[in-house]
Specification:
alpha+beta; four-stranded antiparallel β-sheet; elongated
Length: 177
């Protein structure tokens, strides 16, 4: 029965520990006691830059577009562009196209891979594009509209002996010179 009771020094340690934990949890609330112009965060209880940093009105995104024989466009999935997840492939494409300034080399290397991919059998050309999008329009109105700049383009090589993809005019297929 005596084992269930707290010794005086154990109760003091537990009280001190609980007070320290509660103080650490309540410490960020001191920010809300400041005048509004001195507050540095608009998100409650978070002062990390991802929440408090002002965001730009426009976002630049680099992506690949497949061009069909009738000049219609289709955005390519990240799994076709490279291994890894969406963000990894997106960062790799941005690094090669913008940071290292080699979008044409990437397009030239991507074209033969697309030729071998079954889901891209109807594509005749690939473009590396940088789009600038208004974030308010995209996120609030669910409209993906913006300006695009084609950074590079490459024809997708096709084997002339291979049958044409369904719905693709053979005269529209391009072969490398």
């Amino acid at each position: 029965m005596n084992e269930d009771l707290w010794a005086p020094h154990e109760r003091g340690r537990a009280t001190l520990f609980a007070a320290l934990v509660m103080g650490a949890m309540l410490w960020p609330l001191r920010q809300h006691l400041r005048p509004a112009e001195r507050r540095v965060d608009g998100f409650p209880l978070s002062y990390y830059p991802m929440f408090s940093k002002r965001r730009r009105q426009h976002a630049n995104v680099v992506y690949a577009v497949g061009i069909l024989a009738d000049d219609s466009r289709r955005r390519l999935r990240h799994s076709v562009l490279g291994s890894g997840g969406l963000n990894q492939v997106r960062h790799q494409l941005y690094r090669v196209a913008i940071t290292e300034d080699h979008p044409q080399q990437y397009a030239d290397a991507l074209a033969p891979r697309l030729a071998a991919h079954p889901s891209c059998a109807d594509l005749v050309r690939v473009e590396i594009v940088r789009g600038e999008f208004d974030l308010d329009t995209c996120l609030l109105n669910h409209q993906v509209e913006g300006t695009e700049t084609v950074l590079a383009t490459a024809d997708i090589p096709r084997d002339p002996a291979a049958p044409a993809a369904p719905g693709v005019d053979e005269s529209a297929q391009r072969t490398p010179a």
